[in-house]
Write a structure and sequence with these properties.
Converts 2,5-diamino-6-(ribosylamino)-4(3h)-pyrimidinone 5'-phosphate into 5-amino-6-(ribosylamino)-2,4(1h,3h)-pyrimidinedione 5'-phosphate. It is an enzyme of class 3 (hydrolase). Its EC number is 3.5.4.26. It holds the Pfam family dCMP_cyt_deam_1. There is one protein chain. The protein has 376 residues and is of the alpha/beta class. It has a nine-stranded mixed sheet. A five-stranded mixed sheet has the order 11-10-12-13-14. Helix 10 links the parallel strand 12 and strand 13. Helix 10 packs parallel to helix 11. It is elongated. The mean pLDDT is 96. The structure holds NADP nicotinamide-adenine-dinucleotide phosphate. NADP nicotinamide-adenine-dinucleotide phosphate binds next to strand 1, strand 2, helix 2, strand 3 and helix 7.
């Protein structure tokens, strides 16, 4: 199931706090950065915050610029993004600013929380998501039922921690403010728990008055059948690599990336790379690694087209090469059509040997694009 693109946004003190413990909200951003946040809000379909932030900050969560609201309306969007809050208890203050400003509102909650919230006369749709709140179900609901394609999450720490730890955040926009809080009782951005093992990818740094904006992308592949946000990024890269293939009338153009469990890129390849007229993408990538590399056993192979199961040009098809390398997880965008081989089923071959094969069909069009000349 596709999810919205999930963008986490937060400002922290130099010692990593989101707020102090005083009754007023601690202003961490600079005026120009608040305007940047307004711009990001104007670019998304929905903004989500936890019930704790409604209680602590009583925010309105608006797009403040009339020009940005007008541009949204002109583009056929609602003037304000949908406002979403998450609550397990359903214990929400009906007088909070959240309900009385902006456009449509949604409470995502548990079955029990929905009973409680339903008695409060909130100006919002209430969505029960089962006995416990499942983030994947919530994202599916926003995508499929509410048409949300870009979701901005504005805290607090409990929410950011869960989305990052569950591999559901596509991007973190973090602003570092030049002040200290120094109070161990103050809320932190990220709580304890299991995060991805390796390093995130730093995609941008920007000075905005006296604060610094840093943008990061998680890199760790998912585990098992559930795709992580990073799986999407890596598969998109594999599709981009397919664009680099020298064109051929007799073979597909495919890109592949091999990524370690901690998010380190191990190797990449594409069809007909390096002047080899028959090399396949997965084969080219695997050839760059020692067969004994211990990281292969927990790595994920991303391939724009599923690994081949039959092949005339070389003794071993790519599905066999992947099995021999000991890789246990493959993410692909497109199942092989009958263009060159009837009934090719590389995914089936891999799955029969216990490899987890995840197909992200939302990337199929991108994977097919460099092969359009083979249609029919
Ligand atoms: N500096 C910044 O950028 C920034 C941004 C936002 C917030 N903040 C600060 O962050 C603090 C609030 O953060 P917080 O961590 O206490 O609260 P929070 O993350 O905003 O909200 C936590 C609440 O969300 C609900 N919730 C979260 N996960 C849930 C789950 N899996 N199932 C069911 N319900 C769930 C629960 O609501 P119920 O209690 O109703 O069950 C929980 O108490 C405030 O001090 C605020 O000022 C700072």
């Amino acid at each position: 199931m596709p999810y919205p693109y999930v963008l986490l946004s937060a400002a922290v003190s130099l010692d990593g706090y989101l707020d102090d413990t005083g009754p007023e909200r601690l202003l961490l951003s600079s005026p120009a950065d608040f305007d940047r946040v307004d711009e990001v809000r104007a670019s998304v379909d929905a903004i989500l915050i936890g019930a704790g932030t409604i209680r602590a900050d009583n925010p309105r969560l608006l797009v403040n610029s009339p020009e940005r609201r007008a541009a949204r309306a002109q583009a056929g969007k609602p003037e304000y993004p949908l406002k979403v809050t998450v609550s397990g208890s359903g214990d929400l203050d009906p007088d909070a600013n959240f309900w009385h400003t902006g456009g449509e509102k949604l409470v995502c909650t548990t079955d029990k929380g929905a009973e409680r919230a339903g008695t409060l006369g909130l100006a919002a749709d209430i969505v029960p998501l089962g006995p416990d709140l499942d983030w994947r179900r919530l994202l599916e609901h926003l995508h499929d039922v509410r048409g949300v394609r870009r979701l901005m999450v504005e805290g607090g720490g409990t929410i950011h921690t869960q989305l990052l730890q569950q591999g559901l955040a596509d991007e973190l926009q973090l602003v570092l403010a030049p002040l200290f809080v120094g109070d161990p009782d103050a809320p932190r951005l990220f709580g304890p728990g299991a995060y991805q093992g390796g390093r995130l990818r730093l995609t941008e740094t920007r000075r905005i008055e006296d604060v610094v904006l840093m943008r990061y992308e998680p890199t760790a592949p998912g585990t098992g059948p559930l795709p992580s946000a990073a799986d999407h990024h890596w598969l998109a890269l594999a599709c981009d690599l397919a664009d680099r293939c020298p064109p051929s009338r007799t073979a597909f153009s495919v890109g592949a990336v091999i990524v370690a469990a901690d998010g380190t890129e191990l190797a990449r390849g594409h069809s007909r790379e390096g002047g080899d007229p028959v090399v396949h993408a997965e084969e080219a990538a695997l050839a760059k690694l020692a067969p004994t590399d211990p990281r292969l056993a927990t790595a994920t192979v991303y391939s724009s087209l599923e690994p081949c199961a039959h092949r005339a040009s070389r003794p071993k098809p790519c599905a066999r090469l992947i099995l021999d390398a000991g890789v246990r997880r493959v993410v692909t965008a497109w199942r092989e059509p009958d263009t060159f081989v009837a009934g090719a089923d590389g995914s089936g071959l891999l799955a029969a040997q216990g490899v987890e094969v995840v197909v992200l069909e939302e990337y199929a069009e991108r994977a097919k694009a460099p092969n359009d000349h083979l249609a029919g």
